[in-house]
User: What shape does this take?
Amino acid sequence: MPQQRFITLTTDFGASDHYVGAMKGVVYGINPAAQVVDISHAISSYDLLDGALAIAQAYSYFPADTIHVVVVDPGVGSARRPILARTEKYFFVAPDNGVLSLALEREQRVHVHEISSEHYFQQPVSQTFHGRDIFAVVAGWLSKGVEFANFGNEISDYVRFRMPKPTRMESGQIQGVVLKVDKFGNVVTNITHCGAPWLYDSLYCRRGQAENLIKRHKSQLASDRTSCRSPLANQMRLILHTAAYWVMREVRDAIPRPQPLASGEFSTIRLRLLKIAVRIKETATRIRLAFASNCPDAALFHGLVGTLILRPT
Assistant: This one.
């Protein structure tokens, strides 16, 4: 009984001509039990990148041993080779022009053979329709159980291209390239899932940290209280609260890391270091602060004063 394997077709042939139908007729003539599935025939004419994106985004959703035929072939009739690729789960039949680059770079094990056994071809072979006379024929015989190695020798110099990689800017932004805009207006870029951890750590988490800083600004410094009748007074109040916020940041950043307060909330630092009872002693040259004998943070306060006074601006 003939083997029932899936064969997919991805081409730039469109839907108005006979080309796709002819390819299917060749496949069914060789193996009537084959199941042919159309991925897309709306690839932009001769656009290798568009074809590479289409097959790369679809091939892995098919069952094991599916044969993927990709025909986007601006070099048809030239010296470019027809190739057959084998991965751990799938077969690919295509011209050797890089259209399989994105799919094959996702696979761990790849074996590529040049299709050179002409006795499998449809005769005579057209100079402009290798999709029918070579690729569909090979897919049909492959689906019927012909051994992969029978179609030609293995090669390593098959054509491949690499996508441009996204660039991480010093500003923290990531710069990518628009590869395609689909019919729904969705933009496809070269920022893949591989960049997702960096996007999460560098952009999303920074956004969350900024939100936390704003919450701290409001909750611990009451910077959202603009209850004055005068707009200028409210504006000045916001300016003073912002200044207070940065003073608190400076104080906390100056606390040595072993100290628990180095990661404390502003309200805790204010209560422990700023809103404390001391005895003020004024002399002719200085003001002395006398802490209570049991003040737990007196030494820390003294060290911070020296650090902040000496810190350059």
In short: The CA atoms of residues 181 and 187 lie 5 Å apart.
